[in-house]
Amino acid sequence: MALLPILTAPDPRLKKKSRPVETVDADVRQLMDDMLETMYAAPGIGLAAPQVGVLKRVIVLDIDREEVKTGPLFMANPEIIEASDEDVSYEEGCLSVPEHYSDVVRPAKVKVRYLDRDGARQEMECEGLLATCVQHEIDHLDGILFVDKLSALKRTLIRKKIKRRAAAATKT
Ligand SMILES: [Zn+2]
After folding, report:
1. How far is the CA of 137 from the centre of ligand 1 (A)?
2. pLDDT for 60-111, tens place per residue?
3. Using 50, 70 and 90 to split pLDDT, how confident is the model at 25?
């Protein structure tokens, strides 16, 4: 396994749409394992392949809270096939948008269909933090960051901060 560098906004690769994987082969499994290790080291509870510069529809998750402990989850080509009418608001953060946290409203429950690490087709009912996290990671596969879901005003404030930081980083 290897640690992969995590891209941060405004890297243009984070805005691209990722392509489905054809099969979960050894390369995809290697990517999944490296992503999991990278996520644990960050530390984070979810990571999508475009965050490490790979434009493939692959995400990994591991939620370890009192109310939900998932263990490591590997998903290729994840799709939301059902979403509740009921919404919930969670304070989200993102390894690619460091130091920013904001409330995001999303469906409270979703059913996700995906291929697991063995390439087997799975469906999983998700609620609570898991539902939020799965939707956040799938958004990454479509080039959407959680800051894109906020009100225009909040978004402008966060973008300004990101630009300032990027400008500061290039000065050194
Ligand atoms: Zn994220």
Report:
1. 6
2. 999 988 888 999 999 999 999 999 999 999 999 999 999 899 999 999 999 9
3. very high
CA of 23 to the centre of ligand 1 (A): 24
How far apart CA 48 and CA 85 sit, in angstroms, is 26
Least trusted range by pLDDT, from 9-13, 40-44, 62-66: 62-66
Query: Ligand 1 centre and the CA of 144: distance in Å?
Result: 9
State the virtual CA torsion across 156, 159, 160, 162 in degrees, nearest 10. 160
Q: What is the DSSP letter of 171?
A: H
Active site residues: 137
